[in-house]
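Regression test case RT-17, inverse folding.

Input:
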């Protein structure tokens, strides 16, 4: 069966997730995280992808990013994946695949859902019971977006910048968003959209993406069509 072509319009944010094969560990040391972050910075610049938020977990990664050129996210992830696998296999004297096939992604409506994706990504270590506060986990963008830590990897999205013109006030408002976890329905919607390569957004936004790309962005109903018995 041929692979389903990716829908990746220029200028529209995407949530990207890549998992280790069979959910195996992909990062075993601090040096592994540093190596991955360095190549992510290199290839995001090379292929013109803005990175807004991220988290590197032990067996998967999440990114929130916006392509500025056609096919940019795929080119970035392919180059990053190959480079990191070579490093990982050489370092740990192993062979074979590391990643679980193709990365998964979904398009994100900026006005209503972008900040929710920021929260979803940066709260991942809290949901995994690794930390109590997202600030305690250093391999995410939370310390940049919420605490003002300097980063050459992070490009703030305009929606994030619009929280406040003052950086300190913006960071304080952003931190306040993390006083409560995302509700279960939002988490489910994000996961389903990402796994299916669809859209997280309103029906109007989905219609706009369908017109732009010619690809269906509304989930199809399961099961056989209902037969009318006359």
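Golden output:
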């Amino acid at each position: 069966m041929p692979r389903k072509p990716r829908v990746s319009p220029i200028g529209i944010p995407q949530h990207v997730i890549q998992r280790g094969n069979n959910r195996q560990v992909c990062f075993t040391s601090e040096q592994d995280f540093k190596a991955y972050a360095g190549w992510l910075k290199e290839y995001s610049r090379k292929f013109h992808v803005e990175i807004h938020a991220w988290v590197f977990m032990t067996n998967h990664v999440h990114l929130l990013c916006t392509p500025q050129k056609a096919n940019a996210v795929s080119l970035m992830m392919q180059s990053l994946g190959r480079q990191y696998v070579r490093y990982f296999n050489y370092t740990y004297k192993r062979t074979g695949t590391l990643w679980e096939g193709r990365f998964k992604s979904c398009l994100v409506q900026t006005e209503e859902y972008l900040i929710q994706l920021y929260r979803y990504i940066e709260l991942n270590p809290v949901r995994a019971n690794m930390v109590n506060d997202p600030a305690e986990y250093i391999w995410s963008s939370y310390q940049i977006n919420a605490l003002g830590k300097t980063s050459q990897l992070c490009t703030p999205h305009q929606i994030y910048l619009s929280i406040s013109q003052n950086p300190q006030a913006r960071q304080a408002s952003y931190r306040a968003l993390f006083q409560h976890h995302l509700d279960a329905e939002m988490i489910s919607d994000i996961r389903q959209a990402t796994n299916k390569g669809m859209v997280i957004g309103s029906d109007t936004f989905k219609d706009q993406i369908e017109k732009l790309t010619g690809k269906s962005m509304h989930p199809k109903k399961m099961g056989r069509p209902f037969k009318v018995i006359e």
